[in-house]
Amino acid sequence: MMTPSARLLDALQRFNASHPWDHNAHYHPWLLRQLPRRFGRALDVGCGSGDLVRLLARRAERVDGIDADPEILERAREATGSTARVTYTLGAAPGELPPGPYDVITCVAVLHHLPFAETLTRFRAELAPGGTLVVVGCARDEDVRGLLSVPLNALAGWVKNRGRTAARRPVSMTAPTRRPEMDFSEIAGEARRLLPGVRLRRGFFWRYTLVWRAS
């Protein structure tokens, strides 16, 4: 028999499923604020449908997007159109990343699918001196912040879906998901070991942020 708290959590989860919204796009404005107004070459890892690639292309001389899903890459190419400033590559990180150096590397809600230390090490190697790495990652979140994210997620879903005749799941949320294995303390410890001076912060909606600037 379900307890009252379990029934409430189940109801919230069902509400969230029927009122989807793009948690990753929610962080795009913050991510862009971490970057220079203009920069040279950028790489978006796990680019999906290319939403962030197109935002980066407004500031960059060239943007490379890489993703392991050929279908979503085709959608990205269709949405982006023909431009020499944007290139989409089919491949899996970290082994198949296009070679740098890059002035900007971004990675949103993808790092928990990849070998953490190996991927950060590759990002560090491909970043140009003075370049910026920005990660919005997913952590195993089992404390009060994770619990608070459930009702906040429902509120955001209601606001963002208000006025729509039917809720439709964003394209960027259709990729297979994997539960994060590392909690925030584990992530922070490993990131600080690999990226001296890195800035990390926990966020809501089961996300954390990481910003590092290469010397």
Structure description:
By secondary structure, this protein is of the alpha/beta class. It has a domain at 38-139 and 177-213: Rossmann fold (3-Layer(aba) Sandwich), CATH 3.40.50.150. Helices cover 39% and strands 23% of the residues. The protein has helices at residues 4-18, 23-26, 28-33, 51-57, 70-80, 116-126, 144-161, 184-194, and strands at residues 39-45, 60-67, 86-90, 102-108, 127-138, 199-202, 207-213. α6 (116-126) links the parallel β4 and β5. α1 (4-18) runs parallel beside α7 and α6 runs parallel beside α8 (184-194). The N and C termini lie far apart (57 Å).
CATH homologous superfamily identity of the domain at 38-139 and 177-213? Vaccinia Virus protein VP39
Q: Tell me the structural class.
A: alpha/beta
Individual helix count: 8
> What are the low-pLDDT stretches, counting only 5+ consecutive residues below 50?
8-13, 15-21, 146-161, 169-175
Span of the ends, CA to CA: 57 Å
Strand order of the largest sheet: 3-2-1-4-5-7-6
Structure at a glance:
With 215 residues, the protein is of the alpha/beta class. The protein contains 8 helices and 7 strands, in the order H-H-H-E-H-E-H-E-E-H-E-H-H-E-E.
